[in-house]
Amino acid sequence: SARTCIGNNMQTLAQNLTSQGINASLTQLIHTLANTSKEISHAVRHGALAGVLGTTEQENVQGETQKKLDVITNDMLKDALDKDNTVRGLASEEEDFIVEVGAKGDYLVCFDPLDGSSNIDINSLVGTIFSILPAPEGELTEQSFLQAGRKQVAAGYVLYGPSTMLALTTGQGVQLFTLNPETNEYLLTTEAMSISKDTAEFAINMSNQRFWEAPMQTYIADLLLGTIGPREKAFNMRWIAAMVGDVHRVLSRGGIFTYPTDNKNPEKPYKLRLMYEANPMAFLVEQAGGKASTGYETIMDIEPSEIHQRVAVILGSANEVDTCLEYHDIDY
Ligand code: AHG
Ligand code: MN
Ligand code: MN
Ligand code: MN
Q1: Residue 318: is its pLDDT beyond 90?
Q2: Is the pLDDT of residue 30 over 50?
Q3: In the chain, is it the N or the C terminus that has fewer CB atoms within a 10 Å radius of its CB?
Q4: 175: which residues sit within 8 A by CB, 6+ positions away?
Q5: Of 112, 85, 186, 98, which Cα lies nearest the Cα of 140?
Q6: CA distance 187 to 269
Q7: How far apart are CA 90 and CA 88, in angstroms?
Q8: Residues lining ligand 1, judged by CB closer than 6 Å?
Q9: Closest atom, ligand 1, to C-alpha of 239
Q10: Residue to substitute in 40, 272, 274, 314 for testing ligand 1 pocket (most ligand atoms within 8 angstroms of CB)
Q11: How far apart are CA 21 and CA 2, in angstroms?
């Protein structure tokens, strides 16, 4: 039956990491993250039955009211990483400051424990995003984390969708694993994710249109003109409101995703966070043949200045990102 066929001849995550030649400590750390994501998947799936939905009374350093699951998933990852002797420190969307763990391991982990929190209470897509950096020698400070995305040794996300999927890169392409609910094991279901160079699909929160800068205004206006505009092509739009979901679609069937600069709140012109949203996603996207930019700078080349720094993000199909960047080269 279909049931007994699941997983036949498919590589497990462990087998795949071995075949990639990943060292023992990085392998252990990836397993810690993967195993914790299985527990998160379990909690998310139980939803209202486990009483995990809804909001807390606390605000995080981002100025957002935390959902119960933001806090629960943050604690799960923090506890697991604290017990893993390959870790030196961690940083999270839900932690005001960097956290030093007990061990003096080789790695730093930056994570967004639950991406797309506004989707929790409507039973829609959420995920976890992580970035692994080498731990520098000496005392651990915020500065230890402020390394360009280029320095990442691994990055990935877990999507808690109709199936739970783990997308991973260690710099050797992007591998996609699906969690087998029978055995609770991640199995390799796509060996090398690849983003088509061209696309006819874009993702942006259109409700912010009046707040964008001129280059993005003009670029999107031209997409909306379709076949009668300068692009001479009809574009489709999608917006999941969880970066994991939108980036997963881009990795699966191409597209351009952007959360651009806006002046809705002049104190906060960008939404997405560099260290645990933009950088790990940029690493995955580049490894799948796509591009990731702020409009003016390649995401992974940015020298970070603070752990919760925010950036504009334009990523996806290489030719479409290039076209969008051409609009940023023009003087308006
Ligand atoms: P988080 O839930 O981790 O705070 O991240 C939310 C981010 C990102 O996932 C998504 O792309 C974007 O916010 C959605 O923004 P809108 O609410 O403007 O749609
Ligand atoms: Mn948040
Ligand atoms: Mn997020
Ligand atoms: Mn989050």
Answers
A1: yes
A2: yes
A3: N
A4: 16, 167, 168, 169, 188, 190, 191, 192, 193
A5: 98
A6: 40
A7: 7
A8: 64, 93, 112, 115-118, 205, 241-243, 259, 271
A9: 19
A10: 272
A11: 32
The answer to whether 198 is a known ligand-binding residue is no
50 pLDDT more than 90: no
The closest ligand to the CA of 118 turns out to be 1
pLDDT of 4 over the 70 cut: no
Q: Where does the pLDDT of residue 213 fall: very low under 50, low under 70, confident under 90, or very high at 90 and above? A: very high
Residue 271 labeled ligand binder? yes
Contact 146, 131 (CB under 8 A): no
Q: Which amino acid is at 176?
A: L
What per-residue string of b and e applies to 228-237 under the rule 16 or more CB within 10 Å gives b?
eeebeeebee
Q: Kindly report the protein residue whose alpha carbon is nearest to atom 16 of ligand 1.
A: 241
| Cα–Cα distance measured from residue 30 to residue 123, given in angstroms and rounded to the nearest whole number | 27
Q: Which atom of ligand 1 is nearest to the CA of 129?
A: 3
Tokens of 257: 């995703």
Q: Are 190 and 284 in contact (CB under 8 A)?
A: no
Instruction: Tell me what percent of the chain is helix, strand and coil, each rounded to the nearest 5.
Output: 40, 25, 35
Question: How far away, in angstroms, is 243 Cα from ligand 1 center?
Answer: 6
The answer to whether the annotation marks 117 as part of a ligand binding site is yes
What is the Cα gyration radius of the chain? 20
Q: Closest residue (by CA) to atom 18 of ligand 1? A: 205
Q: How does pLDDT run across 167-196, given as a tens digit for each residue?
A: 999 999 999 999 999 999 999 999 999 999
Residue 147 DSSP SS3: coil
